[in-house]
Amino acid sequence: MAQVAPMKRPSRRCAEIAQACAVKVCVACKRAPVRGHVDDAYHCREILGHVAPNWDAPGADAFFTEDAKPEEVRAWADLEAVPVQRKKKPPPQTKKRSHSPKFGTPSHKRSRLPTGAMSDLPSSDPGAAAAAAPRGDFGLRKPLVFGEVIQLDAMNDATSLRAKELRRSGTPCVLTGVEAKDVAPFASRWLREDGSLDDNAFVRDVGNERAPILRYDATYTDQAPIREAMRVSEFVEKHWRAQDSSAYLHQWQFPLSSPEAFRKLLSESPSENLPGLDDDLLDHWLERCRGRSALQYLFMGGVGTRSRLHVDPGGLDLIIAPLVGWKEVTLVHRDDAELVGAMCSDSAQEVERGKRTPLDELLANETPPSLEEEPILSLVRCWRHILKPGEVLIMPEGTLHAVRNVTPALSYHRFHLDTTNPAGFWRALVDGDCPGIRPAEILWNGAHGAMTALDNAVDIGDREDAVDRAECLLKLRHLVGAIVREFSESDQRGLGQRGDSVNSFDWRALLADADDALGLWAGGGGQRKNVSAAPKAKSRKVEGDVGASPRDSLYEPSVGDVVAVRFHAKQVRARVVDVASPSKPPRFCRVHYATYGNKYDELVECSSLRPRTDNQKLVVKVGAKCKVPWGDSSDEYDAEVVALHSSAAVRLHYLTVGSDWDQWVGRRKIIRQLRA
User: Fold this and answer.
1) Which residue has better confidence, 206 or 218?
2) How far apart are CA 260 and CA 267, in angstroms?
3) What is the pLDDT of residues 374-384, one digit of tens each?
4) In degrees rounded to 5, what are phi and psi of residue 174?
5) Three-state DSSP class for 496?
6) Region 274-279: what's the mean pLDDT?
7) Which residue has the higher pLDDT, 11 or 606?
8) Kind of pairing between the strands at 649-654 and 150-153
9) Peptide bond into 185 cis (omega under 30)
10) What is the band of 220 on the pLDDT scale with cuts at 50, 70, 90?
11) Higher confidence at residue 534 or residue 430?
């Protein structure tokens, strides 16, 4: 074998220099040096960092290119290995170093590379070489990591303030240590001591009610997800007890189900508000709910039943409390919802649904997606949490959310509105983006409810409560003032139309009433010192809250007319179904129900009254004890006659509720005639 010219020899344990000594480059680089230049060998070793195995390592021959000469490599191995003699760094030069325009290797480094036999293989594309180079795992394929939802102890005094701060910032939180009776008192009858569901007690209470059923089958569409209803008792028998998850009792709005369900489930309310939540303004919305929110729901289903990722319109916060079982919630911050794309109805996105899984579906999957699949998710603030009994999720308005039952679960859901976070509600009021609710009516009735609550707090001398009520009314007053200031009179009427509500709200009159109520309270130092001013304020509110005029008092109602009616200082729409002339003896009397407050007193026909006991004769007079039939089912309630009515009366059918609530009213209750 020809003797090899003496040169500095590397240690066999130095893989990089062993490769350089053999003047060979690795297969990963695929860049053979061009004769007369050593730039590629330097690029392979120093820039790309390719590390070759020792020459005698198993499989070492496969590491080098095909034209490598094994005998040349072995010749180096026969020589005694000596340490590498490293050259000292050259002194710094002031002259600018030149670079090869073709290879880009600094000229001062070229002298460090060995010379020898060069391969005639041409150099390959450097981009392809870099793409083919081996890489380490730096977490690209790891799944998306969801954040942990902030948990707050409901028994901690600082929780209320912290929860309100999170609501304003749009961050969801979970209250811990909350009992079922503190959220849904009616549920206490359905729970055993071990926390399991007594389905027999559940069926006894609500088994005859009909509830909406959701099925994710071939008939499902996003436009109409609910296609059937089922009796609760049938659902429990066929699906809950049989552990069948093909059907999901979804969003049953039990306050509007039937009078019987209302009495059993809403006869009592929680003793106090949850931390971070003030009095719910939705309690004043619908009179048929008698001081309870209409936006309360029950969900019930087996393992895997779920709600897809969505956002609820209306600008209302959402409360979720599992009564039985565990529920997994996936949440996306409201400011990042557009990144996910669930709020966009772009046609291009719909086209892509067949080619690419939508981001909202990826986030709602049980297995988290990877950022390699959808890099945009790295910008999204999202959380995932498993809710258990004893926990309550407070979800700020606009939060994108999906819910999945980890175990068979029964849960209570409720929308909430107070003055802590009214910005979303204001946007829904202005934009009209609130199907199913009427924000103009909610604000109108909520303002009157706040005025009544302030009056009651002052009357009983509760100074602390009166301060809270006045603060709430002041914030609502500002919302009303914004409507008056920012919109013309035609636009103000349009707010009612866009919200599918009454189109005759007089916002200026409501603003004046709120200012009067706050002025009287502040003028008395938080107490009503000038008692004579109270009737004057109330009489003005009755006339001013509807924009009445002398011309309106000349209106004579006729059957079929659509009218605006005042009921507890609120406006609702109704249709006249009957008219009664003045009569003597009186045809009507006003009754007070034994289990309800004075504001629920109503006008009924004397002939419809029944004695309390069958063997008793009823004489209709003031103070008489009686039973009054109510609704289509003629359920009877204990009542007392408080006045006789011989004037004209009108029987109304309220357009926003069922026929159960048809009733007679006095002529003064009618505000004006509306367009049909």
Assistant:
1) 206
2) 10
3) 888 888 899 99
4) -120, 125
5) helix
6) 92
7) 606
8) unpaired
9) no
10) confident
11) 430
Residue with tokens 């080098």: 64
pLDDT(173) > 80: yes
The residues, ordered by sequence, that sit 6+ positions from 148 with a Cβ below 8 Å of its Cβ are: 383, 385
Q: What single-letter amino acid sits at 6?
A: P
Give the helix, strand, coil percentages of the chain, each rounded to 5: 35, 20, 45
pLDDT at 555: 65
- Structure confidence by residue, pLDDT tens digits, 540-597: 332 222 233 223 344 678 888 888 776 655 667 788 888 888 888 888 898 888 877 7
Question: 657: helix, coil or strand?
Answer: coil
Confidence of residue 31 (pLDDT cuts 50, 70, 90): very low
- Taking the CB of residue 72, how many other CB atoms lie within 10 A of it? 16
Q: Which residue has the higher pLDDT, 178 or 526?
A: 178
Query: Percent of the chain beyond pLDDT 90?
Result: 26
C-alpha torsion angle, residues 552, 554, 557, 558 (rounded to 10): -130
**CA angle, residues 444, 543, 598, in degrees to nearest 5:** 70
Q: How many residues does the chain have?
A: 676
Tokens (6 digits) for 233: 């008792």
Residue showing tokens 């344990």: 13
359 token code pair: 């981001």
What whole-number distance in Å separates Cα of residue 414 and Cα of residue 8? 81
State the DSSP string of 563-619. EEEEETTEEEEEEEEEEE---SS-SEEEEEETTS-GGG-EEEEGGG-B-SSTT----
Tokens of 219: 């008939």
**Residues 312 and 212 sit within 8 Å (Cβ to Cβ):** no
pLDDT at 76 over 70: no
Per-position b or e across 17-35, b if 16+ CB within 10 A of its CB: bbbbbbbbbbebbbbbbbe
Rounded to 10 degrees, what is the CA torsion of 639, 640, 646, 648? Answer: -30
Looking at residue 579, its amino acid is V
d(CA 243, CA 247): 10
In contact, 25 and 43? CB cutoff 8 Å: no
